[in-house]
Amino acid sequence: MGKRIWLPLLLIAVMGMSAFAGGSSEGQMAPGQADLEEEVYGMVVFLKGSEFFNWTYAGALDAAKAIGPHVTVELQGPAEWDATLEARAIDQLVARRVDGLLVTAGDAATLVPSIDRATSQGIPVITFDSDAPDSDRLAFVGTNNYAAGYTAGSEMVEWLDGSGHVGVSTFPGPDHLRQRVQGFTDAIEDAGADIEISVVNDEGDVSKAETQLTALLQANSDINGIFAAHGNPGPGAASAVNSLNRTGEVAIMGFDFGMPVIELIEKGEIRGTVGQNPYLMGYMAMILAYSANHPTDVTSTVAPFGHVPSNVDTGVSILGEAEVQMYKDPPQF
Hints:
Layout: H1 3-21, E1 39-44, H2 51-67, E2 71-76, H3 83-95, E3 100-103, H4 108-120, E4 125-128, E5 139-142, H5 145-159, E6 163-170, H6 175-190, E7 194-201, H7 206-219, E8 225-228, H8 233-243, E9 251-255, H9 259-266, E10 272-275, H10 278-292, E11 311-313, E12 317-319
Parallel strand pairs: 1-2, 1-3, 3-4, 4-5, 5-11, 6-7, 6-8, 8-9, 9-10
Antiparallel strand pairs: 10-12
Helix pairs in contact: 1-2, 2-10, 3-4, 5-6, 7-8
């Protein structure tokens, strides 16, 4: 069965579970539901407080409500981008014997031991947004990051009429960023475009992105495009371009739709952004974690856990000024 079919089937399944459990958005107990044991799931992110992960958490909370009021989700993780601290948060939740984990990998290799310890102790782990493919996680929910980068590269070719020099702002470590940059590069090559690509290491920081891109722009006057491979460098790119009085000359493509990116799109300083669907990532990751924690009489391919697909692609689209309006009121936690 193709992965495009999984999503509607899973949504039907959760509606069935919700009807069985008698759950409601108000959290009222239906007859017989009081007998259900409480279940606690942990969502672990590598940058707690970010708008993106607030969207994913909102999705997970709504999925938990759909299943029933006996299910709760906690948001855990460091307030700074640190995979070691994220691994510690996973270990602490495992020590508490939570019923399942929803994890986005700040660094795939760093999190493998913690993820593997969880699954070895019977706690299902679903990764979302950024995968740890070499771990024992049961499934990945999120963007096909190679396809997202490819979409961005194809759009950039159109923006630049097939010629120019593009700066790419990213940093080593996260598997999802590597895939995005590879997809972006392949799209430009496949299009036969005469576009040179230069990559800078922004270390995951807005100010460092600005510094690195400013230096790149100063050293290469032919740069006419910038691709931000994650959410932070977009604003840094806009600042770098502005400081060199090149606004309007360099087409900037952001990633995701944090408020700084939205505001810069409205001002015309960022041309567009690659929009993921973080709400759906959180929603589907929670559904899969619950399913994995409730095996049926039919043995699954990930036994002793319940049935889950190996991958759910939540898709992307290129967002301009009109499309980002719906994201101007992000959830707060």
